[in-house]
Specification:
The structure holds 2 protein chains of 2 kinds. Chain A is of the alpha/beta class. Chain A contains 7 helices and 7 strands. Helix content of chain B is 31%, strand content 18%. Chain B is built from 14 helices and 18 strands. The termini of chain B are far apart. The chains are: A alpha/beta, B alpha/beta. The structure holds iron/sulfur cluster (SF4).
């Protein structure tokens, strides 16, 4: 069970606004990438640790979260470094959806959740059942539970750990 | 099964697969490039590996940062070169032999029909032009594939675009791409899907056009775009292919979640308005719009056929005095071919600046970036605010033919009625 407050984004939060251009060539590092994460999404986040200092645990978005076709993993590292434990949205851009799975950050598909929540609401999320509770509003949403492979990668702490373990145990992949 | 399903079945050693299934597949090649490549190798090493799964099938390219415009990039390139050398990679396309990675992958025969190739850049979807599954991934996936020769995939649902009719003069695959972009919008219908292009107007399309079309499927949110291999594919690969291939085709009874038919006989030059890629209009709606920068290049439109049509339009003419034009061939091979064919001479005489093959200003981090107040008419693939540099610049996207005719007039012009 994960608990914390949420930030409600609007439609079309783009990957290149989550990590702005000048940081695309930076090393991938949660601490570093989180300093300016979301700088291009809202003016109030466009300062050092602007988003991170808000102390959000969840992001609730609508359509095509992290879209725009950037493949950079700084996006996911930055969100994780800022303390985000899960993102709920109607739909995700596939590149960052894939990266999120590989990093073990739950990108959870849940339609209509965006309409039912406000920034600052207390949320409780049960990754096993996929149940999302908005404690502040007293509402509940059922999200799509993670596929077994995705859950396994998540438990291992990401694809790197998952594959590293397989390699060191001499196990085949797939 | 569709072509994508059949390729995924074959490469995962199964009889069949169905959309939604998760499979680990064998990848034929893994591409990484200068600005992410070092991270890729570092991650690969952290898996406890020192030797890549196949030195001939990890393809390294310098494209985003070359030639280095500043010290930071020069240092990054030096680190990149050191790591490629250390891993004894066979195919390293560094400055002097460079090109945009996606162009190199197809042009040099590293992508083959019936196989799967991945790359650490979003436009790896381009590889579908060769009848392969081409997919963009992050550095984690690339590192895993470099170590194991494998990648995981969720088998996508297939959407079919049946392209009929006959291509009209000055109408290019880019117009079709932008038309589809406007037709489908960012409405989510195509997210995670594979887009299969079929029909008579695809059979008659050159490899260059097929690459443009598959290239921009990533910008539609799709997983990949693919065109079944035929004699055009085989002729192109003949002599350059590095490995065997398999001319896999979709079954007659293959299932598609959606099908669309587009007649290219009715298609006109198409333009995406600044900031939003899916905000596209027929050229008629924007004729006369002034701009001050023209840009043709990128993994979408920096190929020989693109330069040929521009040379045809710009021959013996002069670029308008208020327009600065940069043309960047997609690779050294394209550069040399265009030079030998006389296209570059024509463009230079018209007043265009030719830059050495690279991503150039496409991502706003390199030569020819946009400044405040610039209005750019570009044959690239992305036009969001700040993409080519300043957030206070505007980018219109269109075909090389439209850019060429418009550069002469100094305002957006229909190439069909230009002369
Ligand atoms: S040309 Fe542009 S879109 Fe293509 S790989 Fe380079 S930066 Fe990306």
């Amino acid at each position: 069970m994960i608990k914390g407050k949420c930030w409600v984004a609007s439609d079309y939060v783009m990957a290149y606004d989550i990590i702005i251009q000048q940081f695309w060539t930076s090393p991938i590092d949660p601490l570093l990438n989180s300093e300016w994460v979301m700088a291009g999404v809202e003016e109030s986040f466009n300062k050092e640790n602007g988003f991170k200092n808000e102390g959000y645990t969840f992001i609730i978005a609508a359509h095509n979260f992290a879209g725009g076709g950037k493949s950079i993993e700084h996006v996911i590292a930055g969100l994780m470094g800022a303390g985000i434990k899960a993102v709920f949205a109607d739909s995700f851009a596939r590149l960052q959806f894939r990266n999120a799975i590989n990093y073990g950050l739950p990108f959870v598909t849940c339609t209509d959740i965006a309409q039912g929540c406000e920034t600052g609401d207390e949320i409780e999320y049960d990754p096993d059942s996929g149940l999302i509770k908005n404690i502040s509003k007293g509402t509940t949403f059922q999200s799509v539970p993670a596929a077994p492979f995705v859950a396994e990668v998540g438990k291992a702490g990401g694809l790197m750990n998952y594959v590293r373990d397989k390699i060191s145990n001499g196990e085949a992949i797939g | 099964m569709t072509i994508t399903e059949k390729i995924m079945a074959k490469q995962s050693g199964r009889e069949k697969v169905a959309p939604g299934e998760l499979v680990w597949v064998d990848v034929h090649t893994v591409m990484t490039m200068d600005y992410l490549g070092k991270t890729c190798f570092d991650k690969f090493n952290s898996l406890g590996k020192t030797e890549v799964f196949d030195k001939d099938r990890v393809i390294c390219v310098s494209d985003h940062l070359v030639p280095p415009p500043n010290q930071k990039f020069a240092t990054m390139l030096n680190e990149w070169r050191a790591v490629v050398k250390k891993h004894d990679i066979t195919h390293f396309y560094d400055l002097g032999r460079q090109g945009i990675a996606h162009q190199i992958m197809v042009e040099q025969g590293h992508v083959l029909p019936g196989t799967i190739s991945i790359g650490t850049d979003s436009h790896a979807n381009t590889y579908g032009a060769a009848g392969a599954v081409g997919n963009a991934v992050g550095v984690t996936d690339a590192a895993v594939a470099m170590a194991t020769g494998k990648a995981w995939f969720r088998v996508p649902e297939s959407v079919r675009f049946n392209i009929v009719g006959e291509w009209q003069p000055y109408i290019m695959a880019k117009d079709l791409s932008l038309h589809i972009m406007g037709m489908m919008h960012w409405n989510g219908h195509l997210i995670y899907k594979t887009l299969e292009f079929t029909g008579p107007a695809i059979s008659s399309l050159s490899m260059a056009g097929r690459m443009t079309l598959c290239n921009m499927t990533v910008d539609l949110g799709a997983k990949n775009g693919i065109i079944a291999p035929d004699h055009i594919t085989a002729d192109y690969l003949d002599g350059v292919a590095k490995g065997d291939w398999d001319m896999i085709q979709s079954d007659e009874e293959a299932k598609y979640v959606a099908e669309y038919t587009i007649n290219v006989s009715d298609l006109g030059p198409t333009v995406a308005l600044p900031d939003k890629l899916d905000d596209t209009v027929p050229v008629e709606n924007v004729i006369g719009t002034k701009f001050n920068k023209a840009f043709v290049g990128t993994c979408t439109n920096g190929r020989l056929e693109d330069l040929a049509i521009m040379a045809d339009i710009m021959k013996d003419k002069q670029i308008h005095r208020d327009v600065n034009m940069i043309v960047v061939p997609a690779s050294q091979t394209v550069y040399l071919d265009a030079l030998r064919a006389g296209y570059l001479e024509t463009l230079i005489l018209a007043g265009a600046a030719i830059d050495t093959p690279s991503c150039a200003a496409c991502a706003g981090i390199h030569t020819g970036v946009a400044g405040d107040g610039d209005i750019v008419l570009s044959a690239g693939n992305r036009n969001m605010k700040g993409r080519m540099g300043s957030k206070n610049a505007q980018i219109y996207l269109t075909s090389p033919a439209v850019v060429a005719a418009s550069a002469i007039r100094g305002e957006i012009t229909d190439p069909r009625t230009f002369n």
